Amino acid sequence: MLDIFIFFLTHSNFFCTLCTFSGGAKLFRFVDDLKSVLGADVRLLRHPKSLGYLAAVTDASKLARGDFLLILNNDLRLHRYCVANLLATFQTHANVGLVAPRFQDEAGKLLESGGLIFNDAKG
Amino acid sequence: MPPHVLSLWRKALRTTGENEGKALDGAIQRNSRFYVRWLLNKSCKWRRIFGSNCSRSSTPKSKLSLHPSALAPSLFHAYDLSPFLPLRCVVPSGGQAPTPYGVAPLVTYLLTFKDHYRETENCLASLMRYAHEASSAEFLLVDDGSTAPGMLLLEYKPSIGFLLALYSCPLLLRSFL
Fold this sequence. Notes:
The complex is a heterodimer.
Chain A: E1 4-10, E2 15-21, H1 23-38, E3 41-47, H2 53-61, E4 68-72, H3 82-92, E5 102-104, E6 110-113
Antiparallel strand pairs in A: 1-2, 5-6
Chain B: H1 3-15, H2 18-42, H3 44-58, H4 68-71, H5 73-78, E1 107-113, H6 117-129, E2 137-144, E3 150-156, H7 162-176
Parallel strand pairs in B: 1-2
Helix pairs in contact in B: 1-2, 2-3, 3-6
C-alpha cells in the first residue's frame, strides 16, 4: 500500500490538492530491515544532486569490494539462476571479462541479448 | 531476535578479535534464522524474498513435477506468483546472509536509482531473493539526487468539489508510482 498524505487547499474559483507520498522513507526502512534482520551487506550512498547514470555508476564502482561487479537498473527483475549462470560463465571460460544477461519484457519478449566491446572500450 | 539486539552484537563484532568475531557471527546467523522464520509468518514482504529459495531447497525431487512452476513455466515468467505459494522452510544463505568476517564478497550488486522508490524496492527484493546463488554478496545502492519526499500539486479549474478531488488523488498517484 502507498503511504499517501493528501492536503486540500480550497480557493475561490478552483480546487487545489497537494499530495505527498513517502515512498522514499519506505524504501530506506526496507534497507534498514535487510541490514538489521538478515545482516545483509547493504550500503546506501546518497548524492544531493544528480550526477547522471554514468558518473554515479563510475563513482560507486570505486567503493565496490566484490570480485565481480553486477551493474543494474532499478526497473529490472532477476529470474531464477540468473546470477548463478552469469558466475558460471566466468568459471567455464578463462578469457572472459564481461558477461551480459538476456533482457526480456514482462511477456517474455526478447529486448536485448549480448553486445560487442572493442579494444578501445567502445561498444 | 529483535533487530536492535542484532545491531548491538554487530557493533561488538567489529571491536572484538577475529576468532571471537567469527563465533559471534555464527551466533547471529543462527538466531536470525529463527527471527526471519517468525517474520515470514507475519509479513508478505519477506515471503517475496525467500519464497523461491525455500520452496526449492525443501521440496523433495520426486515432488518437483507437482510444483506449480513446473506445470506452467511460461505463466511464472510473466507473472511471479511465488509470494502466494506455501512456504516450507526459511534459511537465509549465500548473499542473503552476512558476509563472513574479514572476507571480501564475491559479487557486488550496484544499483542506481532516482525517485522511483517503489520500483527500486521491488528490484532490491528481487535481488535479495536470488542472492543465495552467489556465495557472498554486497549491495551498493546509489541514490542519484532523488527528491524525497515526493510531492505533487494538482489544480482543478474550475473547482470539482471536495469529494471528487479526494477520490481522484489516489487514482492519479497510482499512475505516477
